C-alpha cells in the first residue's frame, strides 16, 4: 500500500519490461502439440537470459515459474504433460522479480480457430482490464476500478469470478489493497501516486463460481465453462496509470 520510491519504481519498470518480453516470446509458441511443461521451461529459460528471476516459483510452494490455465481453468494451473490443442484457450500468468521488485501480468490466447463465444469472452475480458486501468489515478478509489471492470464484463453477460481479485504488488507478489472485479465507485481505499497495483479481470462464459482442483492450486469454473484472465501491473500517477508490464 505504501508508495514505492523512485529507485524501486525504476526496478519495477525493468521487471515489467522483462515480463512483457517473456510473454511476447512465449505467445507464438503456444501451438497445438506443445505441452504446458515445455512452455514453462521456455519461459524460465527466456527470463534467465534476460536477467530476471521468476516470482512465482516457490511462492507458497508453487512448483513452477508460470501458471498456465487451459479452457475452464481460470488461474493457477501448474505446467505438466498436458498437450495444447487447436481451439484451446490458454492463460499465461507470469511474475518477474528484478532487484527484489516484482511485477505480475497475464494474457489469455486462443489457439487456432476458436468459437464466437470464446472470442467474445477474450475481447470483453481484455477490454475490462483497459477499463479498470482507465479508472486509475491518484485520488481515485479502488471501487472505481472495480466498478469499471464489472460494467464491461456485465455488458457481455459474463460470469465475474468474485473469489479472486487484483492486488497491490512490488515488494511482495500480493500486497494490499485487494482489488475486486466488482464493486461500487467511490468506495474502498484511496489510490496514491507511487503505488503499484495488479488489476486482473477473470471471467467465464457461465457462472461466477470456481472450484479448487485436487492439486491444491488449479482454480476452474465450477460449471466447466470457458474462462479468460488478463492482468497488468500499473503504477499510479497523478494523472493516470503507467502500465509497467506493457511491451
Ligand atoms: Mg498474475
Ligand atoms: Mg496477480
Characterise the protein shown here.
The structure is a single chain. The protein is α+β, with helices and mostly antiparallel strands. It has one domain: Creatine Amidinohydrolase (Alpha-Beta Complex). Helix content is 28%, strand content 26%. The protein has 4 helices and 15 strands. A 5-stranded antiparallel beta sheet has the order 8-7-9-14-15. Strands 1, 2, 4 and 5 form a 4-stranded antiparallel beta sheet that branches. A hairpin with a 4-residue loop joins β14 (232-236) and β15 (241-243). α1 (6-26) packs across α2 (36-50). The longest helix is centred in the first third of the chain and has 21 residues, at 6-26. The radius of gyration is 17 Å and the shape is globular. The chain starts with 5 loop residues before the first helix and ends with a strand.
CATH class: Alpha Beta
Describe the global form: globular
- Major β-sheet, in short? 5 strands, antiparallel
What structural class is derived from the secondary structure elements? Answer: alpha+beta
| CATH-defined topology | Creatine Amidinohydrolase
Helix content: 25-40%
State the helix count: 4
Strand content: 25-35%
Structural domain tally: 1
Q: Give the SSE order as H and E letters.
A: HHEEEEEHHEEEEEEEEEE
Give the mean pLDDT: 98
Q: Going across the major beta sheet, what is the strand order?
A: 8-7-9-14-15
Give the uncertain stretches in residue-range form. none
Give the total of beta strands: 15
Molecules bound to protein: magnesium ion
For the record, what is the CATH homologous superfamily label?
A: Creatinase/methionine aminopeptidase superfamily
Rg estimate, integer Å:
17 Å
CATH architecture: Alpha-Beta Complex
Amino acid at each position: 500500500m505504501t508508495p514505492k520510491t523512485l529507485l524501486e519504481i525504476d526496478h519495477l519498470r525493468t521487471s515489467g519490461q522483462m515480463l512483457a518480453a517473456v510473454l511476447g516470446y512465449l505467445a507464438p509458441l503456444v501451438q497445438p502439440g506443445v505441452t504446458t511443461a515445455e512452455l514453462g521451461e521456455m519461459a524460465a529459460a527466456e527470463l534467465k537470459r534476460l536477467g530476471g528471476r521468476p516470482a512465482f516459483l516457490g511462492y507458497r510452494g508453487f512448483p513452477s515459474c508460470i501458471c498456465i490455465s487451459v479452457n475452464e481453468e481460470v488461474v493457477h494451473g501448474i505446467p505438466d504433460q498436458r498437450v495444447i490443442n487447436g481451439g484451446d484457450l490458454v492463460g499465461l500468468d507470469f511474475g518477474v522479480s528484478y532487484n527484489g521488485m516484482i511485477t505480475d501480468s497475464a494474457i489469455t490466447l486462443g489457439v487456432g480457430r476458436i468459437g464466437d463465444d470464446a472470442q467474445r469472452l477474450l475481447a470483453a475480458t481484455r477490454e475490462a482490464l483497459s477499463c479498470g486501468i482507465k479508472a486509475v489515478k491518484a485520488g481515485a478509489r479502488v471501487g472505481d476500478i472495480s466498478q469499471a471492470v464489472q460494467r464491461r464484463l456485465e455488458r457481455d453477460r459474463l460470469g465475474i469470478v468474485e473469489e479472486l481479485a487484483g492486488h497491490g504488488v512490488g515488494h511482495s507478489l500480493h500486497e494490499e489493497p485487494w482489488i475486486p472485479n466488482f464493486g461500487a465507485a467511490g468506495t474502498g481505499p484511496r489510490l496514491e501516486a507511487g503505488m503499484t497495483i495488479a488489476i486482473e479481470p477473470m471471467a467465464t462464459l457461465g457462472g461466477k463460481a470456481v472450484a479448487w482442483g485436487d492439486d491444491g492450486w488449479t482454480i476452474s469454473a465450477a460449471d466447466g465453462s470457458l474462462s479468460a484472465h488478463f492482468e497488468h501491473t500499473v503504477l499510479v500517477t497523478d494523472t493516470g496509470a503507467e502500465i509497467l508490464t506493457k511491451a
